[in-house]
Design a protein that fits this description.
With 295 residues, the chain is mainly β. Helix content is 3%, strand content 46%. Strands 7, 9, 14, 15, 16, 20, 21 and 24 form an eight-stranded antiparallel beta sheet that branches. Strand 15 and strand 16 form a beta hairpin.
């Protein structure tokens, strides 16, 4: 298959109140605009630079996600050890829901030590994208919270993959394949819950809305690997992959771990959905941009 090409043409000038059609060209299997749109064309009515990435990959078959709309919705998993080198990833649909606690927690263990609250990946309502370790001082003025300051309102609507990479003494956070920030702290407590802040001590109201394809690795993925799995999901037998659930069961109360580790999860309240992220394997891409000026 030839590599794709894309040409958005010359920069555009429009009058206030008007719009211009931007066309990435026909024949590609996937499109991703800087606006979050995934169509061949978009209308631009605001000044700015508009980017599009087109690809020719093979669409991934993905039938289901899970919706954590209730305050006490979560998935319980066996205790999954991560250590000081690990990666947790999950696809989330934005905008995230407003919760009673104000936060959205993707991986957690509310059952460490003396009822400690430990979170491996979250959006905090004050500290943004980050992690949480209750008995530490934190880095953003909130006890226990370590954040990047990057808020969910900065993420365009639609599906995005969120990653937290712990590498001995630091944790680096990504949205899609973009590095958001690095924190001088790591979480070493096992994961026992997905989709909320939960564990043996109960469930807090930090549900995440619709998510898909959570994965847990016992090694620090590189930015290049994060980009690879953004386009094409793992198969389940990759080195260092200790938990992977694609939610394609579509019914019932169990989500199966696609690795050989048997970390099947139990659904508590979350509901099945047919809304899923679009992924494309063997996806060669090309990118172009155009500037729109309002005069």
């Amino acid at each position: 298959t030839p590599s794709p090409t894309v040409d958005l043409g010359n920069d555009q000038n429009i009058c206030a109140g008007d719009s211009v059609l931007l066309d990435a060209g026909a024949g590609h299997t996937n499109y991703l605009w800087s606006t979050g749109d995934t169509t061949q064309t978009i209308y631009a009515s605001s000044a700015g630079t508009y980017n599009v990435t087109v690809g020719n990959g093979t669409p991934v078959s993905n039938s289901n996600s899970l919706s954590f709309d209730g305050a006490s919705d979560w998935i319980s998993t066996p205790s999954i050890s991560v250590g000081n080198e690990h990666t947790v990833q999950v696809w989330a649909k934005f905008p995230l829901p407003t919760t009673a606690d104000g936060h959205n927690t993707f991986f957690s263990d509310w059952n460490s030590g003396a009822a400690a609250d430990v979170i491996h990946l979250m959006f905090h309502d004050i500290c943004g994208l980050g992690i949480y370790d209750q008995y530490e001082s934190g880095n953003c003025g909130v006890n226990g919270a370590f954040g990047t300051g990057y808020m969910p309102s900065s993420v365009s609507d639609g599906w995005h993959i969120i990653s937290s990479v712990a590498n001995q003494t630091t944790t680096t956070l990504y949205v899609d394949d973009q590095l958001i920030g690095t924190i001088n702290h790591v979480i070493t407590t096992p994961v026992v819950a997905i989709g909320n802040d939960a564990g043996g001590n109960g469930v807090l109201s930090q549900n995440v809305g619709s998510i898909d394809n959570p994965t847990i690795w016992n090694r620090a993925l590189t930015q290049s690997e994060i980009q690879t799995y953004m386009y094409c999901p793992p198969t389940g037998n990759e080195a260092g992959l200790v938990g992977y659930w694609n939610f394609n069961e579509g019914s019932g109360g169990t989500v199966n771990d696609l690795t050989s580790n048997g970390n099947n999860g139990t659904i508590n309240g979350a509901s099945w959905s047919t809304q899923t992220p679009n992924q494309y394997c063997n996806n060669c891409t090309a990118t172009d941009s155009v500037v729109v000026n309002v005069i």
